[in-house]
Amino acid sequence: MNTFIKKTVKQKILVSLFISYILVLFIPYIVNRISYISVENAMMDEIKNYNAEYIYGRAQTLDAIIANVSDMTDTILLNEDFQKAASLQSPLTAKQRYQLSTNHSYIYGGFDFYVENVFVLLKNSDCYVGQNGAGNLKNFYKGHYSKVFPTYEEWYEFMTRRYYGELLIYPQKSTKGDGRVFYAMSYMDVGDDSKLLANIIVEFRKSFLLFDNNEKNAFFMVDEENSVIVSDQDEGFIQSVNYALKNSDGENIVYMQHDNQNKVLIIQDMMQSDWKYVSCISEDVFLEKIVRMRRNYIYSLLVCILVGGIIIWRSIKKHYTPIRKLTKTLSRNFAFNSELNEYQYLTSVVSDIVNKYQEDSQHQKLERKLARNSFLLAVLKGEESLYDISSRLEYFGINFQNSCFCVMAVKIEDCSRLFFEQDDVSDNEGLAKLIIKNVLDDFFRGKFETAFCENSDELFVVVSLSDTAHIQKLHNVITDAQKIIENLSNVSFFASLSSVYEGIENISVCYREAIELMRYCSIRNVFFLSYDEYIQKNRQENENYIYSVDIEQKLINYLTYGNYEKSSILLQEIINSNLKNTVSASLKVKCLFFDVVATIFKVIRQNEDSLNLIDIEQTDLLDKIDRYESISSIQEEILELFRQICDKSKGNVARTTEKLSEDIIDFVKSNYNNQILNVAFISEKFNVSPNYVSAVFKKEKNIPLLEYINTVRIEHARELLKNTNLKVTDIAAEVGFASHRTFLRVFQSIVGVSPAEYRKNKR
Question: Residue 555, Cβ neighbours under 10 Å: how many?
């Protein structure tokens, strides 16, 4: 133990001693710091005086040149020859090219040695006018800018943007500092301000921007993001400057290091742009003058630290002994961790004692809460004996003074947007149940006697009423609470309320009613419903539903010929037409969905060759329908089966078209006497387009569909002409012709003689 005490670091116990140590160091540190700062400021002033005036003058000169270039471009814009050239359109005539090459004096005036290149780019005529005349843009690019811009397209796009008289740099982002500086002004169409006619481009001479008589200085141009854009230094030097500027925090003087040499950067903002002019000099100019004061500063700090250390050591001798004795005493009763110092050990012992007490207390509260919830849930389910129920309820803090009871069931519908956050849904559910419970408890307090319990994702409230007449008041309270919870916390939930029964022995009846009603609320998306209201509406509802043979046949046709879209729409129409009311009996819903599943079985059996891999029994659809879980989930399962059937049906095109043709033949033979029987009627009946049904039938049977219909009708007409004495007009109507003339024309074309002659010849 003693060995451990000698080796431990006593940093946390000696906080008070450390504060006194700081106070001892504080005064001499401040004195030395003030002296050092004054010397450093003097050195900084010397640096500024050495360089600031020169770089400021350079920046002013550059600003003046930029302003002069701006004035010169404005002069060019007003020149009549320039405006005529800008209005030219491609292709140019020989005369226009000659005029461009001779009338270019307007770009000379005012530009001096600081300019590398000046030219006017005429957008609509695809040529330029420069100091030496006019020419083709691509040749101009190859001669001057092919080494700067990677491609002609990139150069042309850069040169033909709209500019409002501004400085440009290319490339904009580079670690080499190889940018070229341009000044650009756009000339727009007077009648259409969005139409660019020409750009005046002035390129500055890089050597002028960076030249200096003092070889010890290096100059850079820096953009608003503190990155070097123009320089004649090597890439490594530029990277060092960029790094220093990025960490400058807006200072005008920045220290940096390159190749083990200390440098100083002096930054000057430019007036004509957001760029900066930067000069770099060696730190050796002033380093020698500051060394002496820095040495004195370090020596004084060392002396103060030494004196403070002596004081701390004497304080440890005096104040640490009681802590060591207490640690020895506690270590006899509590395990000692050799990795901890004495203060950490004492803290851990006290913390363990407090945590143990808190854990025991919380554990007892949790156990009592769980026992209360389990007991109340058992009472609701009828699993608990009602003998001496009042005393046992009182044990758990539940005191019912009234004799009438009902049960409210709550199930969370959506808590994903709880307080506008997209948190883990499982965490949200717990918080949502807590919010619902607290709000309901606040609304019920003083009005009703209540007891809450939870079962999985559901919450139940046993409500004790003094009179059954108070049920409407309870309705209003629940509705108000739902609105408050949804508005404040974005939590929506279903709530059901059982009927009111007298006597605590009927709580299990209330529970069963609330559970049954909750199932209907979640299925029908009704957020609150009482059992009495449900019974009343259920009695008034006509339980017959619509699922006729025609509707079933239409669904069979859609699925057989692979029309998923129309089959899904028809399913939705069936659901909407049968479930119009808010409440609907489970038997009706089950029958409806079982009938739809039976239709699916029919389709699979009729097309077993192509649909043999679809096994509806492998899904849990039938179990879901039987349990009556959710209309939306059952509908999704059915739609998935629709999709599989339609995909399979479409995959077997040849068989489908052959079956379609055979079905059409059977249909025509059965309905030939229907006067509205035509291609459109058949296409609608089989859920295919008229063009498609005509093309398929002709391809499969080598006869147009309309001609086949007429052939069938004429065959029956011939039988009637031979075997009956019906008038020709009656026979025409009997075989499906709406017009007597049409019948005569078709009969003549197919048989070769008129109906009267045919009858005469056959008799």
Answer: 23
Q: How many residues does the chain have?
A: 763
Kindly state the helix (H) or strand (E) to which residue 462 belongs, with its residue range. strand 458-465
Which of 361-365, 482-486, 516-520 has the least mean pLDDT?
A: 361-365
Query: Any idea which residue has 């339980």 for tokens?
Result: 543
Query: What is the dihedral sign for C-alpha 261, 267, 272, 273?
Result: positive
- Helix, strand, coil % (nearest 5) of the chain? 60, 15, 25
C-alpha–C-alpha distance, residues 644 and 639, integer Å:
9
Is the preceding omega at residue 28 within 30 degrees of 0, hence cis?
no
Sheet containing strand 127-130, strands side by side = 133-136, 127-130, 115-122, 196-204, 180-188, 164-170
pLDDT of residue 407: 92
Evaluate if residue 424 carries a pLDDT over 60.
no
Q: Can you name the residues that pair with 530 across neighbouring β-strands? A: 497
Amino acid at 595: D
- DSSP for 396-462, written as a single string: TT-----SEEEEEEEEEEE-TTGGG----HHHHHHHHHHHHHHHHHHHHTTT-EEEEEEETTEEEEE
Candidates 267, 199, 260, 275; CA nearest to 230 is 275
Number of alpha helices (DSSP H) and beta strands (DSSP E) in the chain? 28, 17
Kindly state the tokens that stand for 61: 């000169």
Q: What is the pLDDT of residue 151?
A: 92
570 and 555 Cβ atoms separated by less than 8 Å: yes
Question: Alpha-carbon distance 484 to 511, whole Å?
Answer: 25
pLDDT in tens, 291-339: 666 677 677 777 777 776 777 677 666 666 666 666 666 666 666 555 5
- In angstroms, rounded to a whole number, what is the distance separating the alpha carbons of residues 320 and 313? 10
- If 0-12 CB within 10 Å is exposed, 13-18 middle and 19+ buried, where does residue 584 land? buried
Q: Which amino acid is at 529?
A: L
Element (H or E) spanning 396, and its range? Answer: none
Nearest to 86 by CA among 74, 77, 95, 73: 77
Question: What torsion, rounded to 10 degrees, do the Cα atoms 158, 163, 165, 169 define?
Answer: -30
Strands 276-282 and 261-269: antiparallel
- Tokens 């209309």 correspond to what residue? 631
* Alpha helices, H only, 79-134: 80-86, 94-102
CB atoms within 10 A of CB 378: 14
